[in-house]
Amino acid sequence: MKSPFPGMDPFLEAYWRDVHHALCTYSRDVLNESLSSNYSAMIDERLIVESSDGNRSISPDVRVVQHRDVSPDAIAVATVDATEPLVVTLSDDEMRQAFIEIKDRSGTVVTVIEFLSPSNKLPGDGSDKYKQKQFETRRSGINLVEIDLTRTGRWQLLCALDRIPKRARTTYMGCVWRSATPAKFEIYPATMAQPLPSIAIPLLPADADVVLPLQPLLDRAYKNGRYGMLIDYTKPCDPPFNEFEQPLVQQLLTSAGLIKTG
User: Fold this and answer.
1) What stretch of H or E contains 22?
2) Which terminus, N or C, of the chain has the lesser number of Cβ atoms within 10 Å?
3) From CA 170, how far away is CA 245, in angstroms rounded?
4) Radius of gyration of the chain from Cα atoms?
5) Are the beta carbons of 147 and 115 closer than 8 angstroms?
6) Of the candidates 185, 105, 86, the residue with the CA atom closest to the CA atom of residue 145
7) Is 203 strand, coil or helix?
8) Burial of 117 (0-12, 13-18, 19+ CB in 10 A)
């Protein structure tokens, strides 16, 4: 089953960690098929700490925890078998976030490609580290390609929103910053209703761009992730659609036979 959305499928955001990894992997593969022998694309990752209150704290390497209902008195006298531990809930959750680096033969990073996650766009460690990455990338003269296919959170692309014409302020967006032309941004509007754009990925100024075709990569991620069997399109989407998005979504889902009207 193909996605009923010609462009970005907003229901995929519920599975974003898996989609994010798939997009990074497929992008790496496509780029390496197109790059000359002077370059290579590689996946790297950064560690972020997600917290319910948006603050970062130091915690042990615990990712999955489970509550057990135990009274304070019972804790004082309980003996716990090694095979059945008492598990304590931590407020923070560590996660690793992937991105792509294109390096030349010397190993110098030439271009960074980021698929933004909701954690990059919400207050907290993920947002702070992403802003730091933007600053360091630009200061180092490294090309930065940002691809935002999520609806959660606030604007986080390097180009300020007020510099983009209103007609081009779409739900999803691609943004390219070239170190050779630091005062310019290349903007790629993207929607649910139209196929995602193919983005020109800059290298060193003397070399031609390579193209990253987003829609085939997303289609591949949708198929290989078996999202057509997982997603129930009759249920509400998170985040909810606004008054302008809802009619379009209903039209696309009705045309695909996934919901009925009346």
Assistant:
1) helix 16-34
2) C
3) 11
4) 21
5) yes
6) 185
7) coil
8) buried
Helices and strands, counts by H and E, the chain: 7, 8
Q: Write out pLDDT tens, residues 27-45.
A: 999 999 999 999 999 999 8
CB neighbour list of residue 178: distance below 8 Å, 6 or more residues apart: 143, 184, 186, 202
What are the angstrom distances between the C-alpha of 184 and each of 82, 103, 139, 214? 60, 23, 15, 22
- CB-CB contact of 48 with 97 (8 Å): yes
pLDDT at 46: 80
pLDDT, tens digit, 9 for 90 and up, residues 99-110 = 999 999 999 999
**Secondary structure of 133-156 as H, E, C letters:** HHHHHHHCCCEEEEEECCCCCCCC
**pTM reported for the whole predicted model:** 0.82
CA distance 168 to 17: 27
How many percent of the chain have pLDDT more than 90? 77
In the predicted structure, residue 79 carries a pLDDT above the cut 80: no
Closest CA to 157 of 188, 179, 181: 188
